Amino acid sequence: MEIAQRIAQEFNLKQWQADNTIALIDEGNTIPFISRYRKEATGELNDEILREFDDRLKYLRNLEERKADIKRIIEEQGKLTPELSAEIDKAEKLTELEDIYRPFRPKRRTRATIAKERGLEPLAVILYAQNLQSGNIDEIAAPYLDEEKEVLTVEGALAGAMDIIAEQISDNAEYRKKIRASTFRNGTLISKAATEEESVYQLYYDFSEPLSKIAPHRVLAIDRGEKEKILSVAIETDEAVPITMMFKNEIAPQRSITSEYVEQAIEDAYKRLIAPSIERELRNELTEMAQEQAMKMFQVNLKNLLMQPPIRNNIVIGLDPGYRTGCKVGVVDEIGKVLDTGVIYITHSDAQRKDAEKKIKGMIEKYHVSLISIGNGTASKETELFVAELLATIPNTDVKYIMTNEAGASVYSASKLATEEFPDFDVTQRSAISIARRVQDPLAELVKIDPKSIGVGQYQHDMNQKRLSETLGGVVEDTVNSVGVDLNTASVPLLQYVSGISAPIAKNIVLYRETEGKFSDRKQLKKVAKLGPKAFEQCAGFLRILDGKNILDNTSVHPESYTAAEKLLERLGYTMQDVSGGGLKNILKDIEKAGVDKLAEELGIGIPTLRDIAAELAKPGRDPRDEIEQPLLRSDVMSMEDLKPEMVLTGTVRNVIDFGAFVDIGVHQDGLVHISQLSDKYVKHPTDVVAVGDIVKVRVLEVDVKKKRISLSMKEI
After folding, report:
1. Residue 532 sits in a domain of what CATH number?
2. Rounded distance, CA 691 to CA 655, Å?
3. How confident is the model at residue 70 (pLDDT cuts 50, 70, 90)?
4. Which of 524-528's residues contact partners 24+ apart within 8 Å by CB, and which partners?
5. What is the full DSSP assignment across 495-522?
6. Are the C-beta atoms of 672 and 712 separated by less than 8 Å?
7. Which listed residue, 18, 87, 462, 486, has the most CB atoms within 10 A of its CB?
8. Domain residues for 600?
9. Looking at per-residue confidence, does 631 or 198 come out higher?
């Protein structure tokens, strides 16, 4: 079956959808571009499905390349038969393919190869054939004794021959396929304590669960415990099942005098060669599946975090809390320009605390600050208490504060990028500035940080780092392009995530802006060095000009569709002035009245493109993040010790994992809402109920101050 046919079946697509999508990918189009501007060609596949499609396409093409390599290698050995070639062609997974290739793969020096070097292969053939109904086994083995080749005894000769048989049986691809499937279906993952010390892995000190049912997050926890030498892990299964299966296939119905040696070889093949290999493969497979699930959680959480709505039009104080080195302060204006920096000490002496109050009050008054953003790291609770008490002393103040997830801020502040962006500030000052700017435009600030350091998901450091970077980079790319980017203010890091824009082109865009002035027209992009026609096609629709010559430049309407947009306006009796004035709120109803099919045909565009154009004309400059609930602003404060069971509080979802969600309720330590406490109804997965950034009401179930654990519930509220 051709790759395109196979993908069409797997993704439940029409054949033309698969063919067109593959063609678009092969032409060098980006996933965001295909998703947004080639809906007619793909049948409106979204970016998530398109990325899965792309991953599967790469896997299947890699599989085909590997098949060709294996055929070539076996043919060079003079062993490629039509039957073997057909078997290779049939393989659907890389593991199956490698099983077929195993007998032909160059081997390191094994017990079997040593036995062959000692001339014992003919004896192995005699034993394996099981044709002898009578005779003396010593006499059969005696001719193969050879002092020079270190075959000194009959027992040694027979052992070497059985090693050869064992390896041959072990290399049987069909056996491996059946045993792998049987072990996964019936096997159990066992973990035991490798130490008597207390640890976070105590749940797994005496743990067992069927391989087919074990939850992904448990696999990753056990893997980490084993890596840290706290757990010993194994797969247990009934070895009699595979051994009996091989006996039935290998032992002749009419037993011979050599059958018992074949039986011994089969048992050895399973216990020494097959079982350990299958265990490694299944453990790796479990880990890969668990990592894929963890990556999906990363994707969901990261997207929701990046899509957090900006808190616009605020002058913000950013506070990066600390004990010994003090609390770093950064003040930024409405567009993120740095106004002031400093350091305050709130945990040292009364005198220093009073001085800190004076400094922050002075900054609030001088710069007309309306929001304080507090990083949620070390000393954040003390800093929050300080801010809450300070604000209470200012009469009639509208200043609010927000606890901000500072994950990655320190990584960014010490980076080359931060040095280039803020050469006149030290690391600590940059961190406070980042915390301030993060609430003004989370997306623009978070793109500067390696996605792995942003702090959502679980077990990020245990992942395949290359795969994780690619996956999370894709999420950032999709999010940036779904929001759109202001061409005249976007930083180099933000521009790099725009479809079709590489790092050098991003730098050239900023350089052009600095030397030639603001962009007033998307067409000016064609004058940017290294930004050729293909790059323009890919990026133009995602770059916005807020006050340009053409209102369409402040929409996601692609320049290739400008003529169609203008004709549509004319056909419906509107003008560009109507677009600028926001007078097209009923345009979607208008196109329905006029007949969508008819209009699309008149304009020479597809129906999806027509609807997209109309939606953009109705709301030019729309930011999809504005439709999401605003972050929770606080003016109160609590400590963990203040929490009591049955308290009902409002909090912000900080992280969602396979077994629940962590919620910030304003006490520095996030509380866990276990999956069983997320809803009064059955919850298949936490993401069905909550997302990062959601504002939720929770009820306190249990508080363990010593272990810093808070159990919460969203049931019966």
Report:
1. 1.10.150.310
2. 8
3. very high
4. 525/487
5. HTTSTT--HHHHHHHHHHHHHH-S---G
6. yes
7. 18
8. 515-627
9. 198
User: How many residues make up the chain in this entry?
Assistant: 717
Q: CA-CA distance, 191 to 193, in Å (whole number)?
A: 7
Q: Give 306's pLDDT tier (boundaries 50, 70, 90).
A: confident
CATH of the domain at 156: 1.10.3500.10
pTM assigned to the model: 0.78
Report which secondary-structure segment, H or E, holds 329: strand 327-332
Q: What is the DSSP string of 378-440?
A: TTHHHHHHHHHHHHHTSTT---EEEEE--TTHHHHHTSHHHHHH-TTS-HHHHHHHHHHHHHH
How far apart (Å, rounded) are the C-alpha atoms in residues 317 and 633?
14
Find out whether 327 and 648 touch, Cβ atoms under 8 Å.
no
Q: Residue 354 is inside which H or E element, if any?
A: helix 350-367
Q: Is the pLDDT of residue 209 over 80?
A: yes
Please return the burial class of 459, using the count of CB atoms within 10 Å of its CB with bins 0-12, 13-18 and 19+.
Answer: buried
How many CA atoms within 13 Å lie on the side-chain side of 163?
19
CATH number of the domain within which 386 lies = 3.30.420.140
Most confident of 265-274, 351-360, 429-438, 450-459: 265-274
Clarify whether residues 118 and 38 are in a common domain.
no
- Comparing 57 with 691, the larger pLDDT belongs to 57
pLDDT on residue 24: 97
Cα separation, 283 vs 279, in Å, equals 6
Spatial distance between the Cα atoms of 55 and 263, rounded to a whole number of angstroms: 44
**170: exposed, middle or buried (Cβ count in 10 Å: 0-12, 13-18, 19+):** buried
- Other residues' Cβ atoms within 10 Å of the Cβ of residue 151: 20
Strands 709-713 and 671-674: parallel
CA 704 remoteness from chain centre: 32
Gyration radius of the chain's alpha carbons: 33
Chain Cα centroid distance, residue 223: 19
Say which residue, 413 or 100, is predicted with more confidence: 100
DSSP-assigned beta bridge partners for residue 634: 401
What's 345's DSSP letter? -
